[in-house]
Amino acid sequence: MAQIAESGGGDHGKGKKRAKKGSTHVDMTPMVDLAFLLLTFFVLTSTFSKPKVLPLNYPAKPKDENVDAPKANNVATFILSDDKVYYYLGEFYSKSRPGKNGSTELSEANFGSGENSVRKLLASWNEYVIRNKVELDKKLDSKQIADTTYDRKLNDLTVRREAVKVLIKTDDKALCKSFIDLVDELKIASVGVIAPTDLSAGEKELLKEKN
Amino acid sequence: MPKIKMPKGTPSIDMTPMVDLAFLLVTFFMLTASFRNAEPVTVETPSSISDKIIPENVLMVTLDKDGRVFFNLSDAEARKEMLNSMLQKYKIGLSEEKIEEFSFMSTFGCTMQELPAYMNTEAAKRASFPTKGIPTDSTKNELLDWLSYAATAAGNTGRTAFEEAKLKGGEPKMEDFKPKFILRVDSKTLYKDAQVVIDVFRELNLNNLNFVTSAEAIPVN
Q1: What's A107's domain CATH number?
Q2: What is the pLDDT of residues B91-115, one digit of tens each?
Q3: Which of A23, A36, B138, B178 has its CA 20 to 30 A from that of B32?
Q4: Contact (CB<8Å) A59/B29
Q5: Does residue A40 lie in a domain region?
Q6: Same domain, A120 and A174
Q7: Does B24 touch chain A (CB under 8 A)?
Q8: Other CB atoms closer than 10 Å to residue A150's CB: what's the count?
Q9: B72–chain A nearest CA distance, Å
Q10: Rounded Cα gap, residues B72 and B82, in angstroms
Q11: Residue A158 domain boundaries
Q12: Is A10 within a domain?
């Protein structure tokens, strides 16, 4: 009972001695203490956010190791090393065998949101898909198309010629964090074709020069 | 000036609404709280914008930041089946009691040789059991065996669950009952170590992997 206890007992004049009025109050303090203790415990221990999962499809293991990966157009390659991320566009041309535009150079990017960030780069490369996706989203919101149709159309969109396809290559020092960050950025930019592959010898050499 | 009369009696506050509220909250938290199972490793997962909630029937491989490999299969029935196959293959004996206990455990990580000792350790002390995790070397790839038996066992239990759901009515999708393959990595794990595990998955032709991540806000352009 949240009451200051009356001084018990005292002699109150000469009045008749009456039977003490039975108090109907129950002292609730211990119960409240307990309730709050439990409350604090549950608030502190309960975990609200269930962990989420980030799906990623790996390419099936080739039956024959020597078969080259099929050539696709509009490919961007990201190379992860330590906490750094490098990229180049198109095919790889080594210094000894340069292509039309000379040999491949690695450029450095970062995971921020400013200049030279992976997000900005992907947004410009994959502009075609992002633009079309906005229209699809609108159609889905106004219920013009069902979500299965939406998924199919989006899938179609990401494999078109105009859509960028991404190869992810990692060296021995790359951390899982940067890998997941990169995949996450790719999902943000709605890149549909993501293939984690191994570094080639030429790329390894370029990377060595960078470090 | 008249004197201010002090109120007689004792100051009292009615605590009933507060108590009501407190108990309401306690009840709410008790009912919603989901307790985490004791894990032998703590893993700090990276974050992503993905909003896909972790599925029910899962095979989960955990990699801690030193690259040690741990494994978990969510379905108790399937765990038993998997363990029995493993014990048979590696010719290791384990009491019926311990097999039962194993089926209700969560993540574990030790070599088959260490398994009897691991199971005989008190549950609370298993977290500090000295182990290098499940071996994944090409010469002694125990993870490959665990995974292949687990995939078969979880596939079986998934199918039974699907049949049961079908009998109950409704139109369950087989896709929802198939085991999913989850990889839980620490932010500081080297990707090279994760790649070893991913290659084991790919060896078994399980190419659809999921990375556990904590939620992150979707950037607004």
Answers
A1: 3.30.420
A2: 888 888 888 888 888 888 888 888 8
A3: B178
A4: no
A5: no
A6: yes
A7: no
A8: 16
A9: 15
A10: 11
A11: 127-163
A12: no
Same domain, A113 and A174: yes
pTM for the model stands at: 0.77
Q: How confident is the model at residue B38 (pLDDT cuts 50, 70, 90)?
A: low
pLDDT digits (tens, 9 = 90+) for A73-89: 788 888 888 778 888 88
Q: Does residue A175 share a domain with residue A202?
A: yes
| Sequence ranges of the domains in chain B | 47-215
Give the helix ranges, DSSP H, for chain B.
Answer: 16-32, 76-90, 96-103, 115-120, 142-167, 174-177, 191-203
In a domain, A65, yes or no: no
Choose among A6, A47, A178: nearest Cβ to B10.
A6
Whether B218 has its CB under 8 Å from any CB of chain A: the answer is yes
- Do residue A133 and residue A199 come from a single domain? no
Q: Give the Cα separation of B49 and A188 in Å (integer).
A: 8
Task: Give pLDDT tens digits for A147-182.
Answer: 888 888 888 888 887 888 888 888 888 888 888 888
* A4: contact with B, CB 8 A cutoff: yes
Question: Do A116 and A140 lie in a common domain?
Answer: no
Q: What's the token pair of residue B168?
A: 């109950």
